[in-house]
Amino acid sequence: MRPRGYPSVAEETDMSDASINASTIREDEPSFGDYFALLKPRVMSLVVFTALVGLLAAPVGVHPVIGFAAILFIAIGGGASGALNMWWDADIDQVMKRTKSRPIPAGKVDKGEALSLGLALSGLSCIMLGLATNLFAGAFLAFTIFFYVVIYTMWLKRATPQNIVIGGAAGAFPPVIGWIAATGTMSVEPWLMFALTFMWTPPHFWALALFMRSDYDDAGVPMLTVTHGRRATRVHILVYTILLAVLAVGTGFSGIGGPVYLAVAVVLNALFLHGAWKIFRRDEDDSEADNFKAERSFFKLSLLYLFLHFGAILVEALLKPYGLGGW
Q1: Which end of the chain is flanked by fewer CB atoms within 10 Å, N or C?
Q2: H/E element holding 298?
Q3: Which family does it belong to (predicted)?
Q4: Residue environment code for 72-102, b if the CB has 16+ CB neighbours within 10 A, otherwise e
Q5: Sign of the C-alpha dihedral, residues 247, 250, 251, 255?
Q6: In-domain check, residue 19
């Protein structure tokens, strides 16, 4: 017989089951990492870097604290866009191999939580950027989030094979926001940085789509590879790469260019053109036989392409105070 006040065997069993259930619930609850993954940290890193280059390439100095705050809130705004994108695209993310492990299709985060997080961070980032720098920068960040979430994600992505072309503008805005945060004004130079990212985006994603076409087929996303086929996509990659090369090399003679940037641009664009030409000359049998080796190599190069161009612009900006950067 148990002493008075001690739980019975049945009560102990119930308590044990409750403890196990509580432990299971806690393990299934979203972690900080799950919420952070909603912000698309890889994309956010590109947003941060290009915005930082735009900020530092501006012709006026920015106090380090203000500069840090500007980049922080631009990063948060980029993350907010990612969360809202995942909220809206949850249905197709669970179909595509490349995205099915994201927090929502994996069952780690509820759609409603992603929406709430995205909206809260959007408001916070735009208001705080406006207060930390200037209202123009905060308003432009708000427009960028709207463009990415509404114009691209909700409308163009599932409506036209030119989705990635027009939608690429959203990813090209961060250096412009960084420049505005520093100066409060517009000029030609940040739009050259915008154009670099804008023209780079289609060949970058179309190369990915060439060896991931089944994903877009399964999800019903009208990527160019799905609506017009791989042959047409290869032609588009070559054309955009040629236009991008002209733009990238020409930027070397602008206010954000210089000998360092020009050298980097000439080498990188020669490699990029060579890769696009190899993709253009291939046929489907060759591609299938070697598992799209040329397309995969081009895609990997494209990841370095934008980083090195913006890195060269940053080097030119850092050298200018010593009379070494620019022309």
Answers
A1: N
A2: helix 293-319
A3: Belongs to the UbiA prenyltransferase family. Protoheme IX farnesyltransferase subfamily.
A4: ebbbbbbbbbbbbbbbbbbebbbbbeebeeb
A5: negative
A6: no
CA gap 164, 205 in Å, rounded: 8
Distant-in-sequence contacts of 215-218, Cβ < 8 A, 24+ apart: 215/95, 215/96, 215/97, 215/98, 215/99, 216/96, 218/95, 218/96
**Hey, what are 211's tokens?**
């060896």
Number of structural domains (the chain) is: 2
Clarify whether residues 182 and 35 are in a common domain: yes
State pLDDT tens for residues 35-48: 999 999 998 999 99
- Based on the domain organization, do 179 and 197 belong to the same domain? no
Q: Kindly report the three-state secondary structure assignment for every residue of 302-314.
A: HHHHHHHHHHHHH
Rounded to whole angstroms, how far apart are CA atoms 315 and 301?
A: 21
Give the residue-averaged pLDDT of 110-135: 97
Cα 64 to Cα 73: distance, rounded to the nearest angstrom:
14
